[in-house]
Amino acid sequence: MVDPTAPRIEDVVRLPEDAFLDQVAETMHAEDVGSVVVTGDTTDLAGIVTDRDLALALRDGIDPEQTTVDEVMTADPVTAEKGAEIFEVVETMRDEGVRRLPLVDDAGDVVRLVSLDDALVLLGEEMADVAELVEAQV
């Protein structure tokens, strides 16, 4: 399972769909994250917006003070269950071509956001455990 206390797993930072992009950028900077979960009218997952999404929107000449996050976010992003094994998470990221994957609970609420960097750290820890086991059996 993905360990929710493992290093570099981001606490989930959320903003509503009607947040302006300048607010998104400021929130990302203040929270030191590269993505924000976007919620709809309730706390339901409506989408995800990344720092790359912001960069591409700015390149296209949008006004960040007049453009809302729902105009640039990835709507209905791919998710995984919160108890998913790290290998399943990585496989989903690879198959779907995403670098960040929200983990959801049984109610569909986002409980964690795993980035590709997080996955690499967790896989490295798994490999270290395997190496330790091999050394112990020699």
Explain the overall architecture:
The protein has 138 residues and is an alpha/beta fold. It has helices at residues 21-31, 51-59, 86-96, 116-137, and strands at residues 14-16, 35-39, 45-50, 74-75, 80-81, 100-104, 110-115. It has four helices and seven strands, in the order βαββαββαββα. It has a four-stranded mixed beta sheet. α3 (86-96) packs across α4 (116-137). Mean pLDDT is 88; it is low at 4-10.
Query: What does the largest sheet look like?
Result: 4 strands, mixed
The structure class reads alpha/beta
Helix content: 25-40%
The count of helical stretches stands at 4
The best one-word shape is elongated
For the record, give the distance between the C-alpha atoms at the N and C termini, rounded to a whole number. Answer: 28 Å
Radius of gyration: 17 Å
Beta fraction: 15-25%
Q: Give the mean pLDDT.
A: 88
- How do the helices and strands follow one another from N- to C-terminus? EHEEHEEHEEH
**Low-confidence runs:** 4-10
Total number of beta strands = 7
Biggest sheet, spatial arrangement of strands: 1-2-3-4
List keywords for this structure.
elongated, 4 helices, 138 residues, alpha/beta, three-stranded mixed β-sheet, four-stranded mixed β-sheet, 7 strands
In short:
By secondary structure, this protein is α/β, with parallel strands linked by helices. The protein contains 4 helices and 7 strands. It is elongated, with a radius of gyration of 17 Å.
Helices and strands, with pairings:
Elements: E1 14-16, H1 21-31, E2 35-39, E3 45-50, H2 51-59, E4 74-75, E5 80-81, H3 86-96, E6 100-104, E7 110-115, H4 116-137
Parallel strand pairs: 1-2, 5-6
Antiparallel strand pairs: 2-3, 3-4, 6-7
Helix pairs in contact: 3-4
